[in-house]
Amino acid sequence: MIASGSSDNLIRIWSIDDPTNSLATLSPPTGHSSRIWDLSPSKSGKLLASAAGDGAVRIWDLKSLEERRTEKKEFQPPPCLLSLKAHEGDAYTVKFHPSQTHVVSGGYDKNLCIWDVRTGHLVKTFVGHQSSISTAIFNPHGNLIISGGKDSTIRFWDLTSGLCIRTLASHLGEVTSVDMDQSGSLLLSSSKDNSNRLWDLKVARPIKRFKGHQNTSKNFIKSSFGPTQSLVVGGSEDGYVYIWDIDSTNVLQKLGGHQGVVYSAVWNQNQSLLASCSHDSTIKTWWYDTSKP
Questions:
Q1: Residue 198: strand, helix, or coil
Q2: Which end of the chain is more exposed for a tag (fewer CB within 10 A), N or C?
Q3: Which among 276, 243, 282 has a CA at the least distance from the CA of 259?
Q4: Are 19 and 4 in contact (CB under 8 A)?
Q5: How far apart are CA 96 and CA 49, in angstroms?
């Protein structure tokens, strides 16, 4: 399944096997009342977290949806298990902890918040960004939060103490996304300075820079690690999905097909699937054609 959120305030769940119809639409009264900025599935795929312009973070139960899909029963909208008034202003980002018991959220109010999804309690607030927070993730070990914001910095937060233990400030524009490799030693960041950068966290400096795409305006253009983490995939304002070689930093391929800004491209290792989303209101999935160079 693929989950998508949009400026129409709706979250839709799609079947990869039948992309013409959505399996479910999450909408008011249990849904958000403003545009959806971010979605994050739990590791098991049974829960989905959403962050939106209404400042809320919601947790959705996808388990029943998967069971109905497997048993070919009539679909019912997944229930909202938890609704949190997480931020003053927009909630821009949300991500599940590897343990699946907590989420981190960030937003316009410059705060990072840890929430217990079992109780709905606010566990801790992290303060330090000088402007709104665009993106936040956990490291693979689950002991650090990495966040990026409009202040052009990337910050590392210790989960136990709540302190900012490192700040990276090489970008010249808003940081729109961060992603970490499976070892936790490499960080990939995207910024409105028109670059995606690869960081060696052992020495806390950028070692590679991926260019050619466009990321300069008000859009949140994101990038992430691709297959076997030997590639970088990402969106662009010129309407293409970009694929870079991580060693040479060369653009290996530009995937055309979208008719507007491509906000993000994400590789799913389990399904060997690349999915992209665009301002043209479409989601596209891509497969590797061996007959083409």
A1: strand
A2: C
A3: 282
A4: no
A5: 7
- Token pair for residue 200? 């060696």
Place of tokens 């699946």: 100
Place of tokens 């490291």: 139
Residue 278, CA atoms < 13 Å, CB-side half-sphere: 21
Contact (Cβ atoms closer than 8 angstroms) between residue 85 and residue 55: yes
According to the 3-state scheme, what is the secondary structure of 155-170? EEEECCCCCEEEEECC
Identify whether the C-beta of residue 178 lies closer than 8 Å to the C-beta of residue 135. yes
- HEC string for 55-97: CEEEEEECHHHHHHHHHCCCCCCCCEEEEEECCCCCEEEEEEC
3-state secondary structure of 227: helix
Q: Look up the pTM and report it.
A: 0.90
Q: Encode pLDDT of 193-236 as tens digits.
A: 998 999 999 998 999 999 999 888 778 899 999 887 889 999 99
Tracing tokens 């999450």 back to the chain, one arrives at 26
- C-alpha gyration radius of the chain: 18
The yes-or-no verdict on residue 271 having pLDDT over 90 is: no
User: Is the pLDDT score of 70 beyond 70?
Assistant: no
- Residue 53's SS3 state is coil
- Helix residue ranges, H only, the chain: 63-71
Look up residue 149 and give its amino acid.
G
CA distance 255 to 55: 34
CA 234/CA 264 separation, integer angstroms: 6
Q: And the tokens for 81?
A: 């298990």
> What are the φ and ψ backbone dihedral angles of 109, each rounded to 5 degrees?
-80, 5
Two tokens at 128? Answer: 């330090």
